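task queued by scheduler; priority normal; single chain, no ligands, no partner chains; default sampling; output format set to structure tokens
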Amino acid sequence: MMRLFNFLIFVQSTKMTIAKYLIAVAALHLIIFATQINMVIAQPDWDYEITSVNHTLLVPASAQITIDTVPISNGDYIGVFYDSLGTLVCAGYKQWQGVSMTIAAWGSSSGSLNGFASGEIFKWKIWQSSTGLEFESEAVFNTIAFPNHMYYTNNGMSGLMSLAGVSSIGATEISILSSLYFCEDADTLHNISVLVNNNLTDDIHKVQLVAGISAIAYADTFIFYDTISAGNSQMYTIALAANFAFISAEELLLDAELLLSNQTISRSINDTIYNNAKPALTFLYLDTVFCQDAIGYTLLMAEPSGGYFSGANVLDDRFFLVDTGLFNISYHYTDLSTGCSNSADQHIRVFETPIVNLPIEVTACEGDTVCLEVQEGYESYTWSDGLNGINENCVLNTATYLVWVTSQQGCVASDTSEVEFLPAPNPVVIGDSVACFGETIELSVLGDFDFYQWTGQVQ
């Protein structure tokens, strides 16, 4: 029988090397008494699930990463989080070592809430290794080199310029909740929401929001004198013109009020508003009037390329002319550098093509007349033998006859008919022509014919 051992090891120094004690037993129970143990948590308690899709987040060495404006230390952690039914859940993290790195933000699998949803905004936290505390953080993205900015996209890429963690104890917090990336027209107002959290022990009596076309040239200042009680929050929404490119928000106390020495008098946030124009779209080389064609189509082209067409009788970049009527064709395009989309419409009219049906072949006898006829009511009729203006042509000669018919809308159709006039038979009757009364004579016809009919009377 294998015995179980309990080992009691007294550690008097943290410098003691324990690796040399290796004992193989069925079960090993170690009770370690340490005269002094200084425990520091090695990493945050953040778990994430690796799924089948992700978004790459570049954190360059030049990024300004701070906690309360103080640069973080090597060994701190940066994590990205998604919203799972109101709870922030980690989707990826890395330890900061002061050099460029990437973080994979894992996306949600189909039908699951185990990662980012398409279009969801990244949420950030910084974990401080020296204290074991985590700080919710605001990110500023590189909007020139990377297309996806703050929004998750499968196989997307974003780059950080800065990440600012803010302590929520003994300070105030301001968060801009609205996206600052817009694609509206110049005359459209942007609604931007700002959330103010008062974590101070005193009430806040003044909130100042400043917006303008730049960080220097302020255009409007919005000052709210609503009191925000200690420990409470307040939402403010302002409407800005599309040419505004900067917003600043700051919480202030009235001048007569004093704060405790360990409290922040005010906290502000500044951010850039990105006003991206919708892409201008143009249809190319497209006629707007066509004639019906059962198997025909016209190619659709537009600039910039890379979008897609939609509408009745549209397949990929082809519009089929099988039906008559007025059709609306739309072109849809998204500029991947800005995320802005636009669409353009073009109307196409398809008119009915004339219906022209001539007999393929007509056979008649010499001396007869053959009349070729097509549907009446069209704008013009042209026959190959020179007859014009009428829908019926009566002919006497063997030939191939063509007719071109034009509708009032200019649509043309044609057809042909092979007309052949055959020579009439030339029978020769032979036999006696004189006989006595009561006698019988025999008459016959030279040649081979299909039909015979005799007529006559005795004179």
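post-processing summary
- Confidence is low (pLDDT under 50) at residues 1-41, 254-266.
- The radius of gyration is 46 Å.
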